[in-house]
Fold this protein.
Amino acid sequence: DIQMTQSPSSLSASVGDRVTITCRASQSISSYLNWYQQKPGKAPKLLIFAASSLQSGVPSRFSGSGSGTDFTLTINSLQPEDSATYYCQQSYSSPWTFGQGTKVEIK
Amino acid sequence: QLQLQESGPGLVKPSETLSLTCTVSGGSVSRNSYYWGWIRQPPGKGLEWIGSIHYSGNTYYNPSLKSRVTISVDSSKNQFSLKLRSVTAADTAVYYCARNIAATYGDWFDPWGQGTLVTVSS
């Protein structure tokens, strides 16, 4: 199985900050990388697919980049409603696997 | 818009079979370009993909669960289902159903059902 490792595991930032979350794959996965946002007690929500494509309806302050083994989710101008846990997921090789999550808190 | 809703028992005894159904509304499970998937999340932990099914019956499973899992689809009811046999406490989790979009640039899940907590306990 392809292992997905996210860093950091958690972070605290202020409203308006730029936040970066990293996801590293245990082998090259080309651009087969997706990002989800999960708020407490809620289902995950798709933010980014294919490494950098913004899902319809997702605010443009979210962006994704990377290819191969290293990927980044960036939140420009962090908002209070962005407090959540973020997961990456690879779909290069079955079984699809997720990162362990990054919890983003607002200072 | 497309909505998914999980249903089934919230409590299952050890060694028994966990059975859940996902009802799809606002769209058809028979769309050729989509698969339909199950993902679970133990309390306080991360996400684990269980498996996915196409309306044609084509399925693929996580090898870690494959020996105990069956996913099926009922196009007439616009539903798909999960059966997980011989459960233990380790199978306690929130179970989500989701549309699995299988595209040129990968597979992703959108949207998701709200999730249902299944506890394995005697």
Observations:
- Chain A touches chain B through 27 residues (CB under 8 Å).
- The two ends of chain A are 36 Å apart (CA to CA).
- The CA atoms of residues 34 and 59 of chain A lie 16 Å apart.
- The mean pLDDT of chain A is 98.
